[in-house]
Structure formats: C-alpha cells, structure tokens
Design the sequence.
C-alpha cells in the first residue's frame, strides 16, 4: 500500500502496487500456480499491464509446471479505468502464441486487461469468470473457465465429483442472458455500460459519506478501481471514537484470536451503530495480520440499493459525533432498528 501523502500526521488514501522483486522472490521451481484476481477483492485494485508482465516473467522463470489462475469475475465493473488503457483488450485480437488461435471477440469491458492476452500466457492461463457478479445472480452459482485444452480437460474430469454440473435451467438462462447483454439496455449501448455506470454512481454515493465521516478512500480520478468494494482506511477521527477497551482483546473469531483495530471497529459498528462491514484482516495472511498490516482497513460494499446506501451514509456521518462506544450514547442504534448491511 502506497499512501498519497507520506506525512505521518495525515492518514490519506492511496494505491496498492505490486512489487516485482517480491513476486520474483516468492516464485520458484516449486511453484505450481499463481492466483491473480483483477479487479481485486477486497482492495478494488486493477492490475496494470506492466504489473501483469511482472507476473508473466515470474511464471516463465518458475518453469513449465507453473500456470496462472486468473479470476476475472469483476471484469465488467471497472468503474475507474486505467488512463493508459481505456479501450480494454476485449475489443481487439489478443497477443498470443501463434499456434493458439485465441482471440478476444466478446463485448467490450472497458479498462480490463486479460492476463491470457499477454505474449506466451494463453497456454499457461485458466481464466475464470462468473455470472454472479455481472448479472447479480450469485445464488445461481454459474460460472465458466476458459483456457487451452490441456488445462481445461482436467477440470472436466474433476467436476462430476465436485458439483456434477450446474442446473440446466440456470445454464440455459445464462446463455440467453449473455446474448441479450450485448444489446441496447435502458438508454445505454449495452448492459455492461449500464452496469458500470450504475456502480460508479453507487461508489460515489458511499465514498462521499466515507470521506465525510473520517475514512480515507482512493481518489478514483487518479487511481483505477474495479469491483463493488471500497477498501477504506480508518482515519484519526474514527480511531478516536472507537472505545480503547475493544482493541487488542481476545476474540476467538478474529485472526490470531485477537481483535485488532479493523476487527474491533467492525464489531463495534455492528453492535452499537447498526453498520455492517468487513474487517480487512481475514483477507491477509495470518503473519501479515498479526504484524498489523491490515489494521487500518475495512471493506465496504456498494452493491446495495440506493436506500440502503443512504441509510448507511446517515449512520456513518453520525460516527464522529459520538465520543463513547457505550450503548447509551445518543447515536447508538435503537433496539427496533435493523443493522444496515454494507458488506457482501
């Protein structure tokens, strides 16, 4: 994480960047696979082509046994496309091995870079996608994997022993939906443009409330972003109202059995303020979480109705007006109030 402002007295937003030396040192001849998720959950990071090239170099250096599992389920929700890549690779023929015959001919997903489109990576990549994120049908559990035959065939062999197959009705519904999604939709050129603009508006609605209540978030005018999460940094005003007695106390559910600041804040907000979000620490390795790397962050989702986001915004703005975590303070949630869920 690289903050916009390195002043120790200022808690700012920032960007998550891939260190090429870190990945090259972590990958070896023993590495069988690298999992890449772009856009990334929970940070919302969109990996640049340069960063993907670092990964490709590491894959090649590791040896022929190393492949990439590229999780691209948020590819149609790049709400802040990289300035240097606003067309997306889906509009163009991809760079591939000359014998693969792989081309990208699906509908445009602005700002997204397919890892398999990098030179030499088609034969070493399984690209994973899902209808759940794009069409808001997570309960259907229908997705797909794309790749060369030698990587996809073992998946075919394994699936009957795992899931057998997705429901025929849901597969048929998805097949029809994919065809229709390329057509004009609610005044937009296609469904995907509508989806991106919808989430961009919801992102700003929640982001403005987070900023106003004391959280630091990415500046999406300069930082690319995708998915439907904001990885917010806990600001000083929020830290000041979080009861001290809640931090670094035993909690069997927390990583390492200790409720560090991110966990303590989320639990306090859920119990006392009626706001549900996700602590950052479960997304980090146990070693990193215990070292405090995740302490400053929480994940907040904006894949919610406008009404839910507006209610969450109201409660977020009340956080800093309270100086006590007691359930008797003026901003505590009434027993008749339901918590507002901004997680996913």
Sequence:
């Amino acid at each position: 994480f690289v903050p916009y402002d390195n002043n120790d007295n200022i808690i700012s937003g920032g960007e998550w960047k891939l260190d090429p030396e870190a990945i090259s040192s972590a990958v070896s001849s023993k590495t069988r696979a690298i999992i890449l998720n772009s856009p990334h959950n929970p940070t919302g990071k969109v990996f640049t082509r340069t960063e993907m090239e670092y990964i490709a170099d590491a894959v090649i250096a590791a040896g022929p046994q190393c492949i990439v599992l590229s999780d691209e389920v948020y590819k149609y929700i790049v709400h802040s496309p990289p300035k240097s890549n606003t067309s997306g690779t889906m509009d163009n023929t991809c760079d591939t091995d000359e014998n693969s015959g792989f081309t990208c001919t699906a509908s445009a997903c602005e700002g997204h870079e397919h890892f398999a489109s990098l030179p030499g990576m088609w034969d070493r990549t399984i690209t994973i996608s899902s209808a759940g994120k794009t069409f808001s049908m997570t309960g259907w559990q229908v997705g797909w994997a794309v790749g060369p035959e030698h990587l996809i065939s073992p998946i075919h062999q394994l699936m009957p022993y795992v899931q057998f197959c997705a429901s025929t009705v849901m597969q048929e519904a998805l097949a029809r939906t994919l065809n229709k999604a390329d057509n004009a939709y609610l005044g937009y050129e296609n469904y995907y443009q509508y989806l991106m603009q919808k989430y961009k508006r919801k992102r700003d609605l929640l982001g403005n409330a987070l900023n106003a209540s004391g959280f630091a978030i990415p500046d999406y005018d300069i930082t690319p972003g995708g998915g439907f999460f904001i990885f917010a940094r806990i600001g000083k005003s929020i830290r000041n109202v979080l009861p001290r007695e809640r931090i670094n106390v035993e909690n069997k559910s927390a990583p390492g059995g200790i409720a560090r600041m991110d966990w303590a804040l989320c639990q306090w907000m859920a119990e006392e303020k009626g706001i549900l979000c996700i602590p950052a620490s479960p997304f980090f390795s146990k070693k990193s979480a215990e070292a405090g790397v995740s302490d400053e962050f929480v994940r907040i989702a904006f894949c919610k109705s406008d009404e839910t986001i507006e209610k969450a915004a109201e409660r977020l703005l009340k956080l800093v007006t309270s100086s006590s975590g007691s359930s008797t303070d003026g901003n505590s949630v009434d027993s008749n109030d339901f918590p507002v869920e901004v997680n996913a």
About this structure: The radius of gyration is 22 Å.
